[in-house]
Each structure stands twice: as structure tokens, then as C-alpha cells.
Specification:
Elements: H1 3-20, E1 29-30, E2 36-38, E3 47-57, E4 63-69, E5 74-75, E6 77-81, E7 85-93, E8 101-103, E9 124-125, E10 128-130, E11 136-141, H2 148-154, E12 157-163, H3 165-169, E13 180-190, E14 196-197, H4 202-207, E15 213-216, E16 219-220, E17 223-229, E18 231-238, E19 245-249, E20 254-259, E21 262-270, E22 273-275, E23 280-286, E24 292-299, H5 305-314, E25 321-332, E26 355-363, H6 367-375, E27 386-388, E28 400-402, E29 407-414, E30 419-423, E31 428-433, E32 448-451, E33 456-461, E34 472-476, H7 479-483, E35 487-492
Parallel strand pairs: 1-17, 2-6, 3-7, 4-5, 6-12, 13-18, 17-25, 26-29, 28-35
Antiparallel strand pairs: 3-4, 7-9, 7-10, 8-11, 11-12, 13-14, 13-15, 15-16, 18-23, 19-22, 19-24, 20-21, 20-23, 24-25, 26-27, 29-33, 30-32, 30-34, 31-33, 34-35
Helix pairs in contact: 1-5
Bound molecules: copper (II) ion.
Copper (II) ion binds at residues 419, 476, 478, 481, 486.
């Protein structure tokens, strides 16, 4: 057995163990609702984001060492409005250097919060962040190169709900914490003493860190939430470091109304929704008649070669776990009906592209890649290397130069495995995924595309500048892959 085969076998062992585990505890916790900081009506002073080192009980009874933003774990939900320029004071109190990247925002490179905008411990980063894009569910998180995976895992992430005039007057549930819920899904490992653990070895670098316990809004699943009758809106973020999730309702379909970059053209009904690390989807669930309904999560059985092979034999045992039970009260809630038309979305036209770029996501195999990755300051397992087009991330190298306002066609391929590819500074449209039809709920505005078995093609355009000293990133959103060098840099001018 060579090293990789051995690592793969190790990965399968962990997976088999996880498959036999009850992912969930037996009792349900109340769904934690993140405090809402709603500045859509304006703000009097700078918006303070305090990054803290803290302790948090996930429901295991033990306090885990965590990171949080104005909170002990994860952060407030910020609700902001198109047209605002948000004056942030991001105060680094976590005791080590970090950055905060605004994931999904169309903003200039010098306020993007990528790995070049380091915040030293005790220092404050004060970017003015212009919100010019349409309504969307976005998030922000550490992008400290080499530490992103660990810092995000520990909780350095929060949500930003961008609204606009259309979204605020739309006939949709939008009463926060009543019929409009922000849902953050993560997978964790807990030690026997109930504390959260994070460790890295060849396997966790290769597959990314996969937990065996699902956590929803910072509490061990399942959670329960009382809701009024009518439509319930769930804005869902997959904030796992590496795990793809398949979401379903116990009864009836999910109605998808928005993806990463905003509303779909029209609502899409689906039995299951695949959500990759970093992706967001907004769904509606009809609670007019059911007493209870549950959001269930299974691990997407497409991950890894051996995983797929094994999945054929043990597919039945992959636990489909309830993460959130909605329980209908007597109250009357949102009385509108399922929407049909949601937004004007012009068709994505490949013939508008002036430039074509090709990317291949590389991992593991060559010693050369591992040596380069290590030499250029990436954080990898021993002997491991990752890169894009044969090049691991290098902080002082610009890989691509794009022109402002020009439409481009990007073709992305993966050597092996599946990788959720993310591009900074924009939303894009998925044109095609060679291996399979692009699911209809992924045909709106996106900033993530899963890449596996053949090329994924996206149509992208940048409307803000990113200079050499503050370039944008494109990278795999399996955070251990990103830290290991599956990332590149580009300017826009
Ligand atoms: Cu990857």
C-alpha cells in the first residue's frame, strides 16, 4: 500500500465509523437564534465587530474553546441594505493574526478581507464596505492563509443578509426569528469529555476535516423551533470545513427561492438540495397544514473515489439525520402563497465572454507540488501539496489579470475528488457542468460551483477593482485544501 492508498483506507475507516454512529443526540435543543443587528434603517456610528477568543457549550455540557464575533461562537446576523456603505471596525481580540473576508460581496479588492488584509492581534481593521449588489444571503469569515480552516472551524464566521427595496417589499416571510430563520450547518468532532476538537493529519488534509456530529446554529442537532402556520423561510449556510450535505424535508419538497448571489428567476421545487461548503440557499417550507416537519441532512454520497465505491455497499446505512424540527403553533403567520416569479434574471450567454481562462485543481500526487506548497508558505500535511494549474498559492504572485467590466468564461476542472470552487469579488452564472446537468436551483447567481469529473464552466464579470497589493482570490472552499495551496490570485483593473 502506498501512502495515498493508506490514507484513503484510513478515510474510509473514519467514514464507516461515522456511518454507524448516531449523528444526533436523542433530545432536541431549542434552535439558537443569532442576535440580529439590523442596520437597514441606518446607523449612527461605525459598526463594531469584536473578534473574541471565548468558550461555548454546544449542548454537550462541556465548554469548548471557540472563537466568535460579538459572541462566544459565530456571530450576530447583520441585516444591511443595498446602497449603504458600511463603516466597520473589526477588532482582533483572538490573540493571533487573522483577516475577515466578506464572502459573496461585490466589493473592491482592498476591502475584500482576503489574506493580504491581515489584522494583527489587538489591532482594528476599518474598511468602508460598499453594498451595491441585490439582496442576497452572504457571510464573512477568517481568510488567514494557513489558518483559515482552524479559525473558521472554531467559529470565526458570521452572516450578512443584504436586502434591497424589492426584497423588503416582496411577498415573502421576513420576520426574523419568527418566520425567517438563518440556519448555519456544521460538522464537528467532540472528544469524550464533550469538548470540540480539531486535528490535522494526512487524511484530514486530503479529504478536508469531516466531523461526525452535526451542529446547527452552534448547538448539537437536532434542534426544535416553534413556528406559526404558513410559509417559513430558511436561509441556509453550509459552514462545514469540507462536508457536502444533502438537505431534505421529512414531508414534502423544499422550495428554493435564492442561491448564493440572490433570488432565482422563479421558485424551484426539489426533493433534495445539495449544498457544498460555503454555499447558501434560501428555501420555503409550507407549514400551513402539517403539525411538524423536519429538515434532514445526509452526507452527500459523492465525496471521494473510495467513498463512492463504499457508498454502493453501505448507502443504506448513511444516516439521514433530522437537524431541525419545525413545530406549528396555533398562531397565524405569513399568509401569502408560494411565489412563482422572483427576479428578472437574463439568460447566461457564453457568447458575451471576451476571454476564456482554464483552471485545473491539483492535489497530492507529485512531490514537486508538495515541495512548492511548503516552500511558499502553505499549510499542508507532510508530503502533501495542492495547487491550481500546477502552482500552489504564492502570496507575492499574481496568477491572472482581469479587466474591469469584461465578461469572461472560466473553465474549471479537477484532477480528482470534488472541490467547491469560489471566486471573490463577484457573482457568476454556471453555464454547464460537464459530468451532469446543472440542477435548476443552481442556475441563478452563484459564487460557488462544485467541480468534479470534467469541466465546470462559469460566466463571470468583475465590477470593482482589485490591485496588485490587494488581489482577489479564487480557491477551493474545502478550507484545508485552501490552506494547503489550492488557491490563486487575480487583479481587476
Ligand atoms: Cu478542494
Amino acid at each position: 500500500m502506498d501512502r495515498r492508498t493508506f490514507l484513503k483506507a484510513g478515510g474510509a475507516g473514519t467514514f464507516l465509523a461515522a456511518a454507524g454512529l448516531a449523528w444526533a443526540q436523542t433530545r432536541s435543543n431549542p434552535l439558537p437564534i443569532f442576535p440580529l443587528n439590523d442596520v437597514t434603517g441606518g446607523f449612527d456610528e461605525r459598526i463594531q465587530l469584536n473578534l473574541n477568543a471565548a468558550a461555548h457549550d454546544f449542548g454537550s455540557g462541556a465548554a469548548s474553546k471557540t472563537l466568535g464575533i460579538n459572541s462566544n461562537y459565530l456571530g450576530q446576523v447583520l441585516r444591511v441594505k443595498q446602497g449603504q456603505t458600511l463603516p466597520f471596525d473589526v477588532v482582533n481580540g483572538i490573540g493571533e493574526v487573522t483577516t475577515i473576508h466578506w464572502h459573496g460581496l461585490h466589493i473592491p479588492g482592498d476591502v475584500d478581507g482576503g489574506p493580504h488584509q491581515e489584522i494583527e492581534p489587538g489591532h482594528t481593521w476599518a474598511p468602508d464596505v460598499p453594498i451595491r449588489q441585490n439582496a442576497a444571503t452572504t457571510w464573512f469569515h477568517s481568510h488567514m492563509h494557513g489558518k483559515t480552516a482552524e479559525q473558521v472551524y472554531k467559529g470565526l464566521a458570521g452572516l450578512m443578509l443584504i436586502e434591497d427595496d424589492a426584497s423588503m417589499s416582496a411577498d415573502l416571510p421576513q420576520t426574523y426569528g419568527v418566520d425567517d430563520f438563518t440556519i448555519v450547518l456544521q460538522d464537528k468532532v467532540f472528544d469524550d469529555d464533550g469538548t470540540m476538537s480539531y486535528f490535522l493529519n494526512g487524511e484530514t488534509f486530503e479529504d478536508g476535516f469531516l466531523g461526525d456530529t452535526l451542529v446547527i446554529n452552534g448547538t448539537i442537532a437536532p434542534a426544535v423551533q416553534n413556528v406559526p402556520s404558513g410559509l417559513i423561510r430558511l436561509r441556509i449556510l453550509n459552514a462545514c470545513n469540507a462536508r457536502f450535505l444533502t438537505l431534505k424535508m421529512a414531508h414534502g419538497p423544499l422550495t428554493v427561492i435564492a442561491s448564493d448571489g440572490g433570488f432565482l428567476a422563479s421558485a424551484v421545487e426539489t426533493e433534495d438540495l445539495i449544498i457544498s461548503p460555503g454555499e447558501r440557499y434560501e428555501v420555503l417550507v409550507d407549514m400551513s397544514t402539517l403539525e411538524t416537519n423536519s429538515l434532514t441532512v445526509a452526507s452527500f454520497p459523492g465525496y471521494g473515489r473510495l467513498f463512492r465505491l463504499l457508498a454502493q455497499f453501505i448507502n443504506e446505512q448513511i444516516p439521514e439525520t433530522s437537524v431541525l424540527t419545525l413545530s406549528r403553533t396555533g398562531e397565524k403567520g405569513f399568509t401569502g402563497s408560494m411565489p412563482r416569479r422572483l427576479a428578472n434574471l437574463s439568460p447566461a450567454r457564453a457568447d458575451e465572454a471576451k476571454v476564456t481562462r482554464e483552471f485545473t485543481l491539483n492535489m497530492g500526487e507529485s512531490d514537486e507540488l508538495a515541495t512548492l506548497a511548503a516552500n511558499w508558505g502553505n499549510f499542508c500535511g507532510e508530503g502533501m501539496g495542492m495547487g491550481i494549474n500546477g502552482q500552489p498559492m504564492k502570496m507575492d504572485r499574481i496568477d491572472q489579470r482581469a479587466r474591469l467590466g469584461q465578461t469572461e468564461l472560466w473553465k474549471i476542472a479537477a484532477e480528482e475528488e470534488i472541490h467547491p470552487f469560489h471566486v471573490h469579488g463577484c457573482s457568476f452564472r454556471i453555464l454547464r457542468q460537464e459530468s451532469h446537468d446543472t440542477v435548476s436551483y443552481a442556475q441563478g447567481w452563484k459564487d460557488m460551483v462544485p467541480v468534479q469529473n470534467g469541466k465546470a464552466e462559469i460566466l463571470v464579470r468583475f465590477d470593482h477593482e482589485a490591485p496588485d497589493h490587494a488581489p482577489y482570490m479564487y480557491h477551493c472552499h474545502i478550507l484545508e485544501h485552501e490552506d494547503c495551496g489550492m488557491m490563486g490570485q487575480f487583479t481587476v483593473s
